[in-house]
Write a structure and sequence with these properties.
The chain folds into 2 domains: 4-234, Nucleotidyltransferase, domain 5, CATH 3.30.420; 250-431 and 464-494, 2-Layer Sandwich (Nucleotidyltransferase, domain 5). The N and C termini lie far apart (55 Å). By secondary structure, it is of the alpha/beta class. It has helices spanning 51-67, 108-113, 118-125, 134-144, 146-151, 158-167, 174-177, 192-197, 220-226, 240-246, 277-281, 304-315, 322-331, 352-362, 371-397, 414-424, 435-447, 456-463, 476-491; strands at residues 4-11, 15-23, 28-37, 41-43, 46-48, 74-79, 84-87, 154-157, 172-173, 183-184, 189-190, 208-209, 214-217, 232-234, 255-260, 264-270, 285-288, 294-300, 403-407, 428-430, 467-469. This is Carbohydrate kinase, FGGY, N-terminal.
Length: 494
């Protein structure tokens, strides 16, 4: 019998899972209970998340686990950041949360900066300026859906919305709250002055709660309707990247990390936020960590590019898997083209393949003409962009980052892991792939007093040993390709 059993509900941008974690006093083991798609819905020209469907899946995962005789004693929820739901005076959800890729966010940064300069917004929050941020989504509602915003009594970020409908408790978990660009790290709370200057309703924001807290039991109706055992819902690193970084099995402090999935979050850990002219210049963000520290990082577009290529190929009747594309990329010509993965061309194109080809032609490069060539362009360009971000991290922190930890689903892409080592000239330790789930589970263990925060890295190393990738000795080809990336970024003013 395990010493402890808990459930992690991990909601990603393309799919979600419920996973049981068991702890025997020395190691953690995982068992997937359910997996489900997370498909956004375009309704009336607006892109929404299917919150109701995702909530049903989380509850079904709890019910299934209990029916199998493995009831968890706690539950933690993590998801992507920035998106939220609004509750009315009766505690009812006013509409499904909008998707951060919804086109209505376009132009909202300019609306905010017309009232408060972007430099001041960054200085007050330390969060990179991106149109997906909660701040700009709220500006859209203020300008174009004022009745909705005026009728709202509470704003809850996505995992906090789940917690509310599970427990009836309204909170804002720290790691997720920091991503909104409405949190002031100097004050340690919501930036009321910033909200006031933008005429945003200050009263709708829930109290901020740190990880490792027991929030409460499930609502009685959920327990009875789903035959779930009573359990405690606890706060974990509710921003999925915070949970993933919490599970990094580091030994030395001077490391960079890449949380590799739909997005690649490239960063390092700092005891305090780094908000300087240099971090502003490179648009680094300061997001809260599970331990109350800060994750100084930058978003890189990540495997979204490959996901969209695969989706387009599937629509064209060409059946490939991710491993197929990696195998074809390995055989393709090296450094045929370089793209900047963070170019606006790749945020939400109708056709990712055509967007990559058009970018290459526009920048006077050859046109990658087959799936292998296109995939290789993506992998090489991602590895080169990682190098750029890590070099800037070393600059802003004043530290040499000796090793790179890659966690998340991207660790399964061995070619990209090796290319990252080659491009950066640094050893890569890849794993665990399930870092978000593991970080979620470890936070629960701390909340129920089974584990201390300092014990987490060793527990993860013992339970899920990482794979090591050593950089190749010949650097010349990668260095030349890196110069091409820098040139391309200069052309677009980065």
């Amino acid at each position: 019998m395990p010493k402890w059993r808990g459930m992690a509900a991990d909601l990603g941008a393309s799919n979600g899972r419920t996973v049981l974690g068991e702890y025997d006093g020395a190691k953690v083991s995982l068992a997937e209970v359910s997996r489900f798609s997370n498909v956004p819905i375009n309704l009336g020209g607006t892109l929404y998340w299917n919150f109701l469907g995702l909530f049903r899946e989380v509850v079904a995962g709890l019910s299934k686990s209990s029916s199998q005789g493995k009831p968890p004693v706690s539950l933690g929820i993590d998801s992507w950041a920035v998106d939220f739901g609004l509750l009315d005076a009766s505690g009812e959800l006013m509409q499904n949360p909008r998707h951060y890729r919804d086109h209505h966010n376009e132009g909202m940064m300019q609306e905010v900066f017309a009232r408060i300069p972007g430099a001041i917004v960054y200085e007050r929050t330390g969060i990179q300026l991106m149109q997906i941020n909660t701040l700009y989504q709220l500006m859209f509602l203020r300008l174009y859906r004022p009745a909705l915003l005026q009728g709202a009594k509470v704003l809850l970020l996505f995992p906090d919305l789940m917690i509310y409908f599970l427990t009836g408790v309204k909170i804002a978990e720290f790691t997720n709250a920091t991503t909104t660009q409405l949190f002031n790290p100097y004050l340690g709370t919501w930036d009321q002055e910033l909200m006031s200057k933008l005429d945003l309703p200050r009263q709708i924001f829930a109290p901020i709660v740190s990880p490792f807290q027991v929030i409460g039991p499930l609502r009685p109706d959920i327990v009875s309707a789903n035959r779930t055992e009573k359990l405690s819902v606890v706060t974990v690193g509710e921003h999925d990247t915070a949970s993933a970084v919490f599970a990094i099995p580091y030994e030395a402090e001077n490391y960079a990390y890449i949380s590799s999935g739909t997005w690649s979050l490239v960063g390092t850990v700092s005891e305090k936020p780094l908000i300087t002219e240099l971090t502003a210049k490179y648009n680094f963000t300061n997001e809260g960590g599970v331990n109350g520290n800060y994750r100084v990082l930058k978003n890189v577009m990540g495997l979204w590019l490959l996901q969209e290529v695969l989706r387009r190929l599937d629509q064209a009747g060409q059946s490939f898997s991710y491993s197929d594309l990696s195998a074809l990329a390995l055989k393709a010509q090296a450094f045929e083209c370089v793209i900047d993965p963070d170019g606006s061309d790749f945020l939400a194109p109708v056709n990712m393949i055509e967007a990559i080809q058009a970018y290459c032609l526009r920048t006077h490069q050859s046109k990658p003409s087959n799936p292998g060539a296109i995939s290789r362009v993506i992998f090489e360009s991602l590895a080169l962009k990682y190098r750029f971000v890590i070099e800037k991290l070393e600059q802003v922190t004043g530290r040499s980052l000796e090793v790179i930890h890659i966690v998340g689903g991207g660790v399964h892409n061995e070619l990209l892991c090796q290319m990252t080592a080659d491009a950066t000239h640094k050893p890569v330790l890849a794993g665990p792939a399930e870092a978000t789930i593991i970080g979620n589970i470890c936070a629960q263990l701390i909340a129920v007093k089974e584990l201390g925060p300092a014990e987490v890295p060793l527990l993860v190393r013992n339970s899920f040993p990482p794979q090591v990738y050593t950089p190749q000795k010949d650097r010349s080809a990668w260095d030349q390709a890196y110069l091409k990336l820098l040139s391309l970024m200069g052309e677009r003013g980065a």
